[in-house]
Amino acid sequence: KQTKDSVTLSWSSGRYQLRVWRSPFRLEILCEQELVVTFNSKGLQEIYHTLMEHKTSVIEEQSELLYIILRNTCCAFPGPSSVGADLCLHGFRHVYGLPEHSDNLQLRDTRDGEPYRLYNLDVFAYQLYSRLGLYGSVPLMVAHKPDRTLGVFWLNASETFINIQYSPTDHQVTFDSVLRAEPQTDVHWLSESGVIDCMVLLGPSPQQHFTQYAQLTGYQALPPLFALGYHQCRWNYIDEADVKSVDSGFDRHKIPYDVIWLDIEHTDGKRYFTWDPVHFSEPTRLQQHLEKKKRKLVIISDPHIKVDPHWSLYCEARDGEHFVKDREGQIFKGSCWPGNGKPLLFNVTTRAWYSRCFSLDKYKGSTPSLFVWNDMNEPSVFSGPELTMPKDAVHCGGWEHRDLHNLYGFYQHMATVEGLITRSGGLERPFVLSRSFFAGSQRLGAVWTGDNVANWEHLKISIPMVLSLSLAGIVFCGADVGGFIQDPEPELLVRWYQAAALQPFFRGHSANVTNRREPWLFGDEVTAAIRTVIQQRYSLLPYWYTLFHQAHTSALPPLRPLWVEFPEEESTFSVDSQYMLGGALLACPVTEPGIQEVKIFLPGSGEIWYDIRSVQSYEGGRTLSLPVALDTVPVFQRGGSVVCRSVGSCSCTAELHPDCNLLSLQGIADGELYLDDGHSFRYRDEKAFCLRRFSMLSGRLYKGMQYLKGKASPVFLLSPGTKDISAAFQYMETCCKLTVNTGNLRVAMDWEIQIG
Ligand SMILES: *[C@@H]1O[C@H](CO)[C@@H](O)[C@H](O)[C@H]1NC(C)=O
Ligand SMILES: *[C@@H]1O[C@H](CO)[C@@H](O)[C@H](O)[C@H]1NC(C)=O
Ligand SMILES: CC(=O)N[C@H]1CO[C@H](CO)[C@@H](O)[C@@H]1O
Predict the structure, then answer these.
(1) Is 451 part of the annotated catalytic residue set?
(2) How confident is the model at residue 53 (pLDDT cuts 50, 70, 90)?
(3) pTM score
């Protein structure tokens, strides 16, 4: 439809409409005649065009697609141009996303101070509840109200600021007169350079929103199974003997783990791709030692190449012109760990060269069980403004650093990942951890929250930080256990292990000036508590792996704010101290010292929740006070769910034995298990995987239990083509727990267990 002032397009049988107004220019998206989003709601684009020369808005209404080209300029930045826009999100009072900030999950109204800033920076011991930039950026804002989840994706990699205004403010909402006012959230985006490339994702369900975002930026890579195990890192394990002794410490104390890590000191004078000739003289032997136990080694590799004309890798990079230039056209010099090193620029040729550096023949001392950690890739430049690269440095094609700053780490991550895939002839899944990231980094691997501190506040903030990352697609994330900087007291260390075991990336790490903190150094009680937590992580790995399969194929994050599972329950919208792990488990890690009791909100009236330790059941829609001891980790399983666990002990992920665990009140339960070889691309190329659904259908389980008592063996295993057999079982009446020995029934076969 067209009028003098507007053009209206509709889709979805007229359910959705887009209305474009000419003057003042604005775009409105409506659903069933109700406004959802207005773009250029404050008409600020009109104001800017008086400041400088610009191209006016052009609407080509004849073409099949509607193209809207906007270009504007303003004076907020010293660079040549900047872009900005206002959006009004109608009916929304909760917005999230925009990582990375050390802040609550729900974004705050910025009228009281600074806007949220997206600018990747190396911030040592970062301040909490700050809106300044940290290591990575995802310019995705997620808004939610009971009937809609909506995303605003602002695709721009230059320094970006976001202002947020909630109306009416929370404060006013309590007054009757304002209560009736329709809530809205006004958002202002401003980027230092580029064009406006803004996408609105309409949901309406959280799941649809995740899929829409993944269709734009990619799905989470399926990690190798070992990467979901426990990682032990320190700056630095000093030599081969040290590594072997820490490795055997895990066996001695019966604590499973999969990967040991080496920080910068493993290199020969901070030349990445080399080994310290004294402390790591036989790197292959070390990796083989670990590989015999099915464990891996991860080494650090930063994007800074040490200037050393006697080092072949430096000469190759110099001769291949792989270095960033300064504004005068000279090779850019910036200091980082290698001293006066040169950060690489990441054009396609450079990336291909850098990827090849990871090949087994070129990277001497590397084996297929060596994996990589990209650090300092914001990039960190000790001598630069805000410890990063100056904005006028010049990349390939003449691009100024200001245009693509937030993408720098992403491209190093990408080149490293490509290097590992190529190294294996395209057969093996890579594992690369990166500190810096951008929208789409989920396609590459894992990220962590950088240089955190060993205190309770940092433990507490790790939860909203990983939830924000998860909402923005970067779902394989975690925070360093114990805090990287300073020494945690034993209670904090235990609580940190408990919380981090329920986060996707699970790594203990500590700085060079801290005391050693391997799990067995703090007495038997602490060792036992940490052992229990890591063992529980391993027993839940079949569930974690299945959740990663879901993230990989349907973009649902393993870690979900409560509102993702309970989208209509407003009482969940601001909760960020507890969360859902998949659809079945609710986690509420203890993050405060010396407490005897925690308050836990169990959402969903009509839901039943089971404390996974006591198997005691609780009704949803209430807040529970749960007594806690040092070894209590409050986790609840949702009634009606099936969670697959691994049984028995193991020393690493290669020894897992999946099993099923089902909880239900009504006799109906449902869940999935995904299995494959755990390391290759055969699941993708040859469809070599197994995805099983476990359903419990008819009958009331509780009644079945009553019936069980009188009979000798009322549990039958039914499998097509075989005779029905009665199965051995145990029944614990106190907690209504039935354990069935399923003998040779395999997960990949179809079968049925009939009770009673
Ligand atoms: C990328 O770098 C290579 C090697 O220096 C150069 O030949 C090529 O022109 C560069 N590409 C672009 C787009 O600048
Ligand atoms: C830790 O590393 C920093 C940076 O290299 C160095 O200055 C310091 O001396 C190191 N401290 C120890 C105890 O190794
Ligand atoms: C440069 C520009 O005008 N806009 C860019 C904003 O950032 C994204 C991510 O790099 C680019 O794809 C856009 O072209």
Answers:
(1) yes
(2) very low
(3) 0.92
